[in-house]
Design goal:
Elements (H helix, E strand, L loop, with lengths): L1 H14 L11 H8 L3 E3 L7 E7 L4 E6 L4
Antiparallel strand pairs: 1-3, 2-3
Amino acid sequence: MKILYLLFAVLLFLFQAAPGSADPIFADTAECRSQGNFCRAGACPPTFAASGSCHGGLLKCCSKILAK
């Protein structure tokens, strides 16, 4: 039974992905993130506004609304 825990740990180690390696970088996503914004599916949170698109137009780029 103890070997199952070791086998499970080894399998998790083998199948982990490096951060960001699963999804390709789209130009609009890179531009959004370089400006300090973030991408989100659906509506942006209350103090944020949609300032563009991400992931090839599938997501919204949310940026902080600046108070005057």
